[in-house]
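PROTEIN DESIGN WORKSHEET
SECTION A - STRUCTURE
LENGTH: 107
TOKENS:
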């Protein structure tokens, strides 16, 4: 399995879980906001991966409640570099997927 494929699976899980929980998402690529307060999974996903890292800012009820920082190009499963503890519950599915993919790669 390719590193980029693994990163995309984990990122997609974050997006899907966040939207299912009622969050809107900003994608910040380090220079600009590629998309802001979106609830369109495909648009969010398309706004990602243009730089070496992205920060996803989560909004609920019009307020930013947390963020997750994704850095690309390492092992793939370790794409989640840092996140706000305020969205720890939201990221559990993606973190579990990350562990599963790491286990498959490392046998």
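SECTION B - SEQUENCE
RESIDUE ASSIGNMENT:
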């Amino acid at each position: 399995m390719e590193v980029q494929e693994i990163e995309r699976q984990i990122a997609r899980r974050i997006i899907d879980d966040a939207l299912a929980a009622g969050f809107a998402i900003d994608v910040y690529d380090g220079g600009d906001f590629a998309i802001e307060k979106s609830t369109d999974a495909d648009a969010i996903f398309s706004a990602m991966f243009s730089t070496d890292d992205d920060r996803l800012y989560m909004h609920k009820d019009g307020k930013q409640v947390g963020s997750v920082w994704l850095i690309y190009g390492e092992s793939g499963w370790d794409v989640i570099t840092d996140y706000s503890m305020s969205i720890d519950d939201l990221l559990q599915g993606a973190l579990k997927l990350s562990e599963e993919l790491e286990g498959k790669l490392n046998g």
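SECTION C - NOTES
Strands lie at 24-28, 33-38, 53-60, 63-71, 80-83.
The CA atoms of residues 19 and 40 lie 8 Å apart.
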